[in-house]
Amino acid sequence: MAIRKRGASFRLVVDPVRCDGYGHCHELAPELVTLDEWGYPIITANAFPGNDRELMRSAQLAVRGCPRMALVIERISAQ
Amino acid sequence: MSLHRVLTGAPRSAPATYAEHVAQFGELPRTIDITKELLASGLTGHGGAAFPTGKKVELLKNQRHGVQFVVVNAMEGEPASMKDRVLLSTNPHLVIDGAVALANTLDADQVIICVPRDRPKLAAIVQRAIDERPSRARRDARIELQTPPGRYVAGEESALVHWLNDKETLPQYRPTRPAILTIGRSATLVDNAETCAHVALIARYGAPWFRQVGTANRPGTAVVTVSGAVKPAVTEVPYGTPIIDIAKKCGVTTPPQAFLLAGFGGVWIDGAEAHRGFDDDSLRPIKATTGAGIVVALPLNACGIRETARIVRWMAGESARQCGPCAFGLPALADDLELLASGRRAEQTLSRLQSRASVIEGRGACRHPDGVVRLVRSALEVFAADVVRHANGNPCVHAQSTVVHVPATQREEELEWQ
Q1: What superfamily does domain B18-210 belong to in CATH?
Q2: Going by C-beta distance under 8 Å and a sequence separation of 6 or more, which residues neighbour residue B176?
Q3: ipTM score here?
Q4: A2 at the B interface (CB within 8 A)?
Q5: The domain over range B304-402 is classified in CATH as 1.20.1440.230
Q6: Is the CB of B312 inside 8 Å of chain A's CB atoms?
Q7: Do B324 and A13 touch (CB under 8 A)?
C-alpha cells in the first residue's frame, strides 16, 4: 500500500450488493470478519492502524480472496 | 388549526386545471435562483429523511458539471401514505411549478415526474397537467412523466435514479457521503412531490411567509396521512401540531393505545405520548420522526406485536434481495415476531429477535433493513407488556382483528423490477 502512512488507520468495507456470502473473507481474515447466521460477513474491527502489518496482511488476503470482489480496504481520513 | 397551503382548494372533484391554478396562486415568478430563499425558509424534504432542501440544492449547484435533471419522486410506495397522490390529484401544477423552479435554479434541462405504473389514473392526471401547461420559452426545462414499477424500494432515491438510468428499480450501494446521484453522467436532484409543492409556494411568497407557521426548526406545514383505527384520511397541519389533535381531526375518537409514526420503517409510540407535537424536535426524546407524514392509530382492541409482524412480513417481501442481511434477515425477523405473537417458545424467540435485529442493522445498501429494525425495536419497547404476556406463553386475545392496512405480499416470481 503506497498510501500507508504512520498513524493512518484503515478499515475493511463490504459492498453488500456484491457480496453473495461465500465466506472466504472469514476464512482468510478471521480476526477482522465474522459471519452472521446466514453466512454474510460482519466486519468486527471498526478500524485498524496501518502500521499493524499482521492485520493489514489479513485484510489484503480477504480483499484478494473475495470471489465477488466485494471488499475494499478504506483509509479513514483523519477528521 | 387546519391550514391549507399545498392542499389549497382540497377536496376537489377534479384536479385543478392550469387556468384554475393560475387564478389561485398566480404565475410562477421568473426568478432565476431561489437557493437563498430555500435556505432561509428552512424547508426540509417531505419524503422521510427531512434533509434541508436548500442545502441539497446548494450542494448540487456546486457540482462541477452542473445539474441536468430534476426528478420529482411521487412513487409513494409506503402503503400508509396517500399524501402525494392526494396532492397531485388536487393540484398537479403546484408540484410541477416547484420542480420547474428547482430546475430554473439549477439550470437543469429536464424535469422528470415519477409516478408508479400501477396508478394509471394518477399518471393520466400528471400527463394531462404536463400537456396543458403553456408552451415554454426555449430555455425552460422539458417536463416528462415516467412510470417505474410501484414497489416499496422503487421509491428509494437511488433505486429511482437507477431505474431512470437502466430500467431497474434496485437501490444502489453508495459508500461515499454525501452521495451525488447521476443520470448518465449528470448530477440529478431528487425531491419528493410534496417538497416540490412547498418549493412552488416559497418561490411565490418567500421564506418569511413560509416560516409564519410551524416550529422554529421545522417551519411550514406537513401533509399527513392518518389511518389505522379510521378510514385513511389526508390533512395538512402546521408542524408542531399535537399528534392527538391530528388524529382527532381525521375522526379518531377514543384515544388509541399506540401510534405508528413516519411509515412502515418508522417507530411505534405509546398512546400516552400523543400530546407531543408532530415535529422532529418534540419527537426526538422518544426516538421518533415525522418521516413521510404518517400517523397510524392503533386502537385498544388490536395487538401491536401482531400488527408489527404483519408489517415486517410485508417489508421482508418488498426487499430487493440484493443484500444478504436484508434478504434473509427480514423474513427471519418476521418469523420471530409471528412466533412471539402466537405465544409458542416465546422466551427464546424474544432474545433471538433482539440479537438478530442488531446483527441486521446498518448492513444493507439502502436503509430498508434499518427501518424494519427500528420498527421492531420500538414495538418491543412500546408493547413491552404484551411481549411479556406473550413470552409467558399467552397468545394474543385480539388475534383475529387486523388494523394496519398491509397490502398482500407478492410471491417472488411476481416481483417486478423492470
Answers
A1: NADH-ubiquinone oxidoreductase 51kDa subunit (3.40.50.11540)
A2: none
A3: 0.86
A4: no
A5: yes
A6: no
A7: no
What chain A holds in terms of domains, given with CATH numbers, is: 9-76 (3.30.70.20)
pLDDT digits (tens, 9 = 90+) for B298-329: 988 888 888 999 999 999 988 888 999 999 99
CA distance B173 to chain A (A): 7
B294-298 and B221-228 strand pairing:
parallel
CB contact under 8 A, A18 and B173: yes
Residue B396 has pLDDT above 90, yes or no: no
Domain range summary for chain B, segments of one domain joined by +: 18-210, 304-402
Q: What are B197-222's pLDDT values in tens digits?
A: 999 999 999 999 999 998 988 999 99
Which residues from chain A sit within 8 angstroms of residue B323, using beta carbons?
16-17, 19, 40
Are B363 and A20 in contact (CB < 8 Å)? no
pLDDT tens track for B125-139: 999 999 998 876 667
Please name which of A73, A62, A76, A79 lies closest in space to residue A23, comparing C-alpha atoms.
A62
